[in-house]
Amino acid sequence: MKARVKRLAAFFAVLALMFAAAPPLQSSAQTEITILKNHAVVDYPHVVTFSLELESLEKITDIRLSYQVERDSFADVVCEAVADYSSKTGSAQWIWDMYTTGNLPPGTAIKYWWQVTTQNGGTILTETRMVTFADERYQWQSISEGNLSLFWYRGDGSFASELLGSAKAALTQLETDTGAHLTRPVDIFIYGSSADLQGAMLYVQEWAGGLAFTGYGVVAIGIAPSDVEWGKRAMVHELAHLVTHQMTNNPYNSIPVWLNEGISMYAEGNLEEYSESYLRRAVLYDELISVQSLASPFSADAEKTYLSYAQSYSLVDYLVSAHGSLRMADLLQVFSQGADYDEAFLEVYGFNIDGLDDAWQAWAKEKYGVYSPQTMGFIPLYLGFLVSGLIVIAAVFVIQKKRQMV
Fold this sequence. Notes:
- This protein is 46% helix and 22% strand.
- By secondary structure, the protein is of the alpha+beta class.
- The chain has 3 domains: 101 residues, Immunoglobulins (Immunoglobulin-like, Sandwich); 112 residues, Glutaredoxin (3-Layer(aba) Sandwich), CATH 3.40.30; 119 residues, no CATH class.
- The chain is elongated and about 85 Å long.
- The N and C termini lie far apart (159 Å).
């Protein structure tokens, strides 16, 4: 028995010596690397240059930059890029060329860190740092209230206050009418003109006056202080796109284009006369676009595009006025769960898209038709002018007849 115990003791002693002699387990071999400089420089809107300077006692075989853009996402997306490294200078660099991806909106935060690997397999990760893709070409001022922050550089404080007041009023009305509201902060960048806005974006149509970066919570728009009335409607339109996005964003399905654009048109206020004229003409000539067609991106034809926007407003107006704001809020909630179009409308309103098309077209023809209550109000006045004109013509005819008789 004693001999067995001695043998066991000897076995465990040898085992202990083996573990003592073995190196400790680790995820990567240790290496001596000293980080001297780690920074990023923004040249808005063109590039972001990430730079790293270091010293190492071992040969470096690989340096990679990992970066993550702060925006709405249903998964943590981390991008990785292999950096250019010079062993002579001990410096690494990677340039994010926005011409290859389209530039980020102003104010976007970017997190980044480096991974350095040496010849013996040792690796280190640098600390995570943050850089803001800021447009520092202008001297921005800012005001904030609630979830809204407004940045501007042209115009005085009253100009900015008027814009912020319009945005707040529109959000309040939109929530009352549809239940839609901001759930997260939004930044509004007011460029001093449409030209300044277009100069801040690498790829944008030359006619664009405002842009909604829904996933980033940013609105960028060009508003000159002399054009504030147009600017308020345009700003509210883009802001409403962010509200709709925050209320309905999900990984499964998107909402119909007409609902997205219609809520933004509705947020602006009453439909403008030129837009209403497209509706009246379409009703008169039986040329209304079906709701099913409006669920997809609008036509590139200008005339059809104008009508599509006007109809989108009218559809939202119909749903709110005929069925109430609570059901519209329910509709947005159902869409946020990824429901398809027919499924959502059947659940909330009891009809599908085709049923909506029938009900809305009947409503639109009554409201915008030639003999609608709105146009009938002008008929007595029109008849008055017509009768007066006939009386004048008759009087002139009688006078001429009398002169001929003389």
